[in-house]
Amino acid sequence: MDEIQELEQQIAELERTLAAAHTDVDDATAEVEREKLLIEQTQASIAQLEDGIEAKRQLIAELDEQLAGLHARIEEARAREAAEAAALAAAAQAEAEAQAAGEVVVEAAGAAVVEEAAPAEEPAPQPAETLICPVCGSVIEPHFKFCPGCAHPVEELFAPEPVEVHKRCPQCGKIWDDDMNFCADCGVPLIVG
Questions:
Q1: Handedness of CA 20, 21, 25, 26 (dihedral sign)
Q2: Which of 22, 31, 104, 157 lies 20 to 30 A from 133 at CA?
């Protein structure tokens, strides 16, 4: 009987060990399932993040393309401005040279054309001190204080104009004071005029 009790105790112990093993297997299986679920959720999050990253990369590419287009337009505008400034400087130089030579500069289709100055029409002879109004062309008698045509004061009409000397940048066309020698924007030597 001792042998039977001993065998029954062994069987009971084996059944407890087996039950504990089943519990451990069930717990491990549940843990594996939780880990699988966590892995699936993590993979889904990773996929969403990767989609977001790809969308951002496409947006960056589009913005880079737009930025490059804007930079190109800025460079084209700068080149146009430089060409226009050079054309203005050349036209001003040609006009100054033509005026010094007694010629007239005429704009023709965007280009300056130099023509010989036509002789000025001589006004009809006036009495010695009679003046012609530079504003309206009326005759101003010596004793008039105001022009009879436009009412400008005679003193203002025939006052000597102060001579202002300014220097101009041949590249950008900006006007600078006489005491400056170089353009503060371009660094180019200034010309009088």
A1: negative
A2: 104
